TrEMBL record:
It comes from the Bacteria. GO terms for cellular component: cytosol. This is Thiamine-binding protein domain-containing protein. Pfam families: Thiamine_BP. InterPro entries: MTH1187/YkoF-like, Thiamine_BP, UPF0045_domain. The lineage of its organism: Bacteria, Bacillati, Actinomycetota, Actinomycetes, Kitasatosporales. Belongs to the UPF0045 family. Residues 3-93 form the Thiamine-binding protein domain.
Length: 98
């Protein structure tokens, strides 16, 4: 499964990069395949429990320093698919090239 999520600290001002970095650090240290862009961090794992544990810990890292946290999450639950983070993008690129 792939989960794309965004953790936003509230009540800390406009510059939230250092708080978001706390969440991304948790994701990267998890060892699961992941990508971060300007809007979301995506993480891929074998099970709901595995991926959601990382999301929970990423939120907790931000929550430890911010008085309020907003979480937006989208999940693609598709058993048996691996390397979806790469293969989905490669499929789109292949269509663009053709």
């Amino acid at each position: 499964m792939i989960v794309a999520f965004s953790v936003t600290p509230l009540g800390v001002g406009e510059d939230v990069g250092e708080y978001v970095a706390d969440a991304v650090r948790v994701v990267r240290e998890s060892g699961l395949p992941n990508r971060t862009d300007a809007m979301f961090t995506s993480i891929e794992g074998e099970s709901w429990e595995e991926v959601m544990d990382v999301v929970r810990r990423a939120v907790a890292a931000v929550e430890a320093r911010a008085p309020r946290v907003s979480l937006v999450l989208k999940a693609d639950i598709r058993p048996g698919v691996t390397d979806g983070l790469t293969s989905k993008v490669e499929t789109v690129e292949r269509h663009l090239a053709g």
